[in-house]
């Protein structure tokens, strides 16, 4: 926050929306690569012009609201996912100087709180569509999100205990000697699965599983409202990757004693995790819904509790 | 902070009134969520940032999701809306309004008494809250955990109830 926090906020928001839009192209290109085909490579350099073409197309499309839908809630739902995703970025420290409120003493809780609100977009979108596929998708989404949210927070408590603060700047500073991926490996694995479920990305995209639910919660959406859900999902992926970087991989800190370049290191690490998200989608099939739920409650929740208890015990033993 | 407090308080009052008066159950719940978020804003403006974050995380983000989930499962149609409308006739308002009037009177009395100091707006650290919980309020925390455990056991038992053969 050097001087003008408003400018910083505007730059971060603009950058984030651009990155989210670019990710649509990046995902299609990378999926193509891993599936032994080209992907979109026609428009512009490496096909990057497809982003622009897609944007123009989606803006020109008929923005249709079904007559049987609840108009107000139907319109509100896609806005919630964007708002929640962008709001959570307020606490992500891109570098020691470039952030909006990362040194806030409840920054991590703010991230968890705002990302817990994102579920309303899916829930309300599915309900307002007033269609069975959409409703089923919304029901799945809400059950999945509540289940995985519980230990998403718990998995991070080990980090909070070790860093002694909820402030994300403080958490990054606490990793100067050793990144939290080493002492909090279990927490990292739990958080990764939970983040995957929270952003409902493949392989955990049961709320929109197209082989059984058409398109799940956004079946009735078209035009830019559908586009908002789509870009919102990529904003979620970018957010989850940024949080993985900040919490477990030292944020802006340089790895292996390489020269300091805060923003560059942060961007590189975040990009790495974004590619991992796409890679997981290309590599793994979906689990069954009941498997997903029982894995969450019966395996990951107890594991995250063990992680908190062991971290606490080690900290007490050392002091 | 005063402006934030007044704005959030006004939104909370308005949203709560709408939550009571909306005939559609989902719309009523949405207003209740807005009201909870505004209450979190009020807490934040008074310096209780941790309580505000937990309010959003637990109440708005988890408990209300379950409420909306259940209402969606019931899939209340036009009949439910009609029933709600009938419940909103003036004679049903009498007793709840009287109770609210008592609360309002108490509130006004409290505000008029100078002994009750206004909130100082000192930021409360998360650590301070934790130390309080595991110090003077340990008994309350333990009682709360008893209650939650009882709820958990009951839910488990109901979930595993053997099917009764008629």
Could you tell me the CATH topology label of the largest domain in chain B: Four Helix Bundle (Hemerythrin (Met), subunit A)
Q: Please count the helical segments of chain B.
A: 7
Strand runs of chain A, count: 0
Major sheet characteristics of chain B: none
Q: Which sheet architecture does the biggest sheet of chain A show? A: none
Mean pLDDT of chain B: 83
Residues in helix, % of chain A = 55-70%
Shape of chain A: globular
Keywords (chain A): Cell membrane, Membrane, NAD, Quinone, Translocase, Transmembrane, Transmembrane helix, Ubiquinone
Pfam families (chain A): NADHdh
Organism (chain A): Sinimarinibacterium flocculans
Membrane topology (chain A): Multi-pass membrane protein
Provide structural commentary.
The complex is a heterodimer of chains A (319) and B (166). Chain A is mostly helical. Chain A has one domain (64-318). Chain A has helices at 5-34, 49-60, 71-88, 107-117, 119-128, 132-163, 168-173, 185-198, 210-213, 223-248, 262-283, 289-318. The radius of gyration of chain A is 20 Å and the shape is globular. The mean pLDDT of chain A is 83. In chain A, helix 3 (71-88) packs antiparallel against helix 5. Helix content of chain A is 67%, strand content 0%. Chain A is built from twelve helices and no strands. Chain B is globular. In chain B, 19% of the residues are buried. Helix content of chain B is 78%, strand content 0%. The longest helix of chain B is centred in the middle third of the chain and has 26 residues, at 49-74. With 166 residues, chain B is mostly helical. Chain B has two domains: 2-91, Four Helix Bundle (Hemerythrin (Met), subunit A) (Up-down Bundle), CATH 1.20.120; 125-166.
């Amino acid at each position: 926050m050097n001087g003008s926090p408003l400018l910083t906020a505007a730059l971060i928001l603009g950058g984030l929306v651009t990155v989210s839009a670019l990710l649509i192209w990046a995902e299609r290109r990378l999926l193509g690569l891993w599936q032994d085909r080209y992907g979109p490579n026609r428009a512009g350099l490496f096909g990057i012009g497809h982003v622009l073409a897609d944007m123009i197309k989606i803006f020109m499309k008929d923005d249709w609201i079904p007559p049987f839908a609840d108009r107000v809630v139907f319109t509100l739902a896609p806005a919630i996912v964007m708002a929640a995703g962008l709001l959570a970025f307020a606490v992500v420290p891109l570098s020691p100087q470039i952030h909006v409120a990362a040194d806030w003493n409840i920054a991590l809780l703010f991230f968890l709180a705002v990302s817990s609100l994102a579920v309303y977009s899916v829930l309300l979108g599915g309900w307002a569509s007033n269609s069975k596929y959409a409703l089923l998708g919304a029901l799945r989404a809400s059950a999945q999100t509540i289940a995985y949210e519980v230990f998403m927070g718990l998995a991070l408590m080990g980090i909070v205990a070790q860093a002694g603060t909820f402030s994300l700047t403080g958490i990054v500073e606490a990793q100067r000697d050793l990144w939290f991926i080493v002492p909090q490996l279990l927490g990292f694995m739990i958080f990764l699965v939970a983040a995957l479920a929270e952003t409902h990305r493949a392989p955990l995209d049961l709320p929109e599983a197209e082989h059984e639910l058409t398109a799940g919660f956004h079946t009735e959406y078209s035009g830019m409202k559908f586009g908002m859900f789509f870009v919102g999902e990529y904003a979620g992926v970018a957010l989850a990757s940024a949080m993985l970087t900040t919490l477990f991989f030292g944020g802006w800190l340089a790895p292996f004693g390489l020269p300091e370049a805060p923003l560059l290191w942060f961007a590189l690490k975040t990009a790495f995790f974004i590619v991992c998200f796409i890679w997981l989608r290309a590599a793994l099939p979906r689990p069954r819904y009941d498997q997903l739920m029982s894995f969450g409650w019966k395996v990951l929740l107890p594991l995250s509790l063990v992680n908190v208890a062991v971290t606490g015990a080690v900290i007490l033993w050392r002091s | 902070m005063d402006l934030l407090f007044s704005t959030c308080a006004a939104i909370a009052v308005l949203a709560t009134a709408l939550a009571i008066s909306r005939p559609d159950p989902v719309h009523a719940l949405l207003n209740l969520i807005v009201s909870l978020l505004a209450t979190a804003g009020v807490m934040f403006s008074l310096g209780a940032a941790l309580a505000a974050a937990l309010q959003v995380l637990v109440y708005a983000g988890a408990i209300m999701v379950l409420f909306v989930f259940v209402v969606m499962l019931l899939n209340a149609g036009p009949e439910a809306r009609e029933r709600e409308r009938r419940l909103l006739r003036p004679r049903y308002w009498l007793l709840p309004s009287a109770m609210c009037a008592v609360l309002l009177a108490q509130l006004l009395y409290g505000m008029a008494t100078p002994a009750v100091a206004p909130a100082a707006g000192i930021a409360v650290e998360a650590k301070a809250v934790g130390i309080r919980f595991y110090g003077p309020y340990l008994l309350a925390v333990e009682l709360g955990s008893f209650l939650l455990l009882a709820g958990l056991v009951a839910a488990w038992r109901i979930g595993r109830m053997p099917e009764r053969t008629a």
